[in-house]
Amino acid sequence: MVRAAVLPAVGAPLEITGIELPEPGPGRVRVALAAAGVCHSDLSLSNGTMRVPVPAVLGHEGAGTVTAVGEGVTHVAPGDGVVLNWAPSCGSCHACTLGEVWLCANALNGAGAVHARRTDDGSELHPGLNVAAFAEETVVAAGCVLPVPDGIPLTDAALLGCAVLTGYGAVHHSARLREGETVAVFGAGGVGLAALQAARIAGASRIVAVDVSPQKEELARRAGATDYVVASENTAREIRALTGKQGVDAAIECVGRATTIRTAWESTRRGGRTTVVGIGGKDQQVTFNALELFHWGRTLSGCVYGNSDPARDLPVLAAHIREGRLDLGALVTERITLDGIPAAFDNMIAGKGGRALVVF
């Protein structure tokens, strides 16, 4: 038996219960989790903002040790440390052939499979976003595991699976921030803190962090923010005042709310770039008039998984970590057990803290 956090139905509280995992079949890998990050996307799955089959074992940001492999798996072996990749690319769909693997049409096909069974009643469980990381152990497709780069502690490596790839990629791949440019990052949670560090690595001259909580200022400044703005109806005006009334070159929105997206847009200079990372609901409608689109010449773009290719980007991130430019520990504000995940969800709803990390 393995303990896991199960979502019995959309909108229902998580249940910490026992599950039974199958042995890894062909092309499958069994992993003993070392750590799993509690991401806002897990909350979005639980409340129905994002749809996956339920009941499900949630959790998509994790790392651990391979304990067994099925037939045909050759890139990892028992004893290897691995990062879980919740969005494995198929390599053959239209997006993949264009090199845009983060938009793979088949990345989440595994979410509909039967992953495990509850120990108490034998009912079938699905694997959330493919990897079911909120559990002591998991069994995943071989494409969902990547070797942990040398020199990266296994527990810290969990954060590479989502927060860091997303935040770093939003800055470097989507916004394409250049040295000397200015940037505003909206939301100082796990992804936002990673984006702040990425902006510092990129050599931004001014890095403005924005959040509803004044308590996050120290976290944000430690991650690289040069300025901190508590979100209000005057946020865009405050950011323009910090940048000679011009606005920032780029804004990274990590919240997923219509008002925040609109504010991020208004905070950029004429010709500026706004990257939307946050996952909002269908009810979050953002409006623009045709004249302002023409006049301001700004760019608004969505960003999935940081527009990242994990196989390409993990070695780059590892180099930043080893050379002291990227601090994974600075993202974590709480280390918890599996039983602490429901409280971590409550903290996210309340806007408290950075990343909560489940340590097994």
Compact overview of the structure:
With 360 residues, the chain is α/β, with parallel strands linked by helices. The chain has 11 helices and 18 strands. Strands 3, 5, 6, 9, 10, 17 and 18 form a 7-stranded mixed sheet that branches. It has a 6-stranded parallel sheet with strand order 13-12-11-14-15-16, with helices on both faces.
Low-confidence stretches: none
Sequence of secondary-structure elements: EEEHEEEHEEEEHHEHEHEHEHEHEHEHE
Fraction of residues in helices?
25-40%
Largest beta-sheet characterization: 7 strands, mixed
Total strands:
18
Structural class: alpha/beta
Protein architecture, described:
The model has no long low-confidence stretch (mean pLDDT 96). Helix 11 links the parallel strand 17 (332-336) and strand 18 (355-359). The chain is built from eleven helices and 18 strands. The protein has helices at residues 40-47, 94-97, 154-157, 163-174, 190-202, 217-223, 235-242, 258-267, 290-296, 310-322, 341-350; strands at 2-7, 15-20, 28-38, 56-57, 61-69, 81-84, 116-118, 124-125, 137-141, 145-147, 182-186, 206-211, 227-230, 248-253, 268-276, 299-302, 332-336, 355-359. Strands 3, 5, 6, 9, 10, 17 and 18 form a seven-stranded mixed beta sheet that branches. A six-stranded parallel beta sheet has the order 13-12-11-14-15-16, sandwiched between helices.
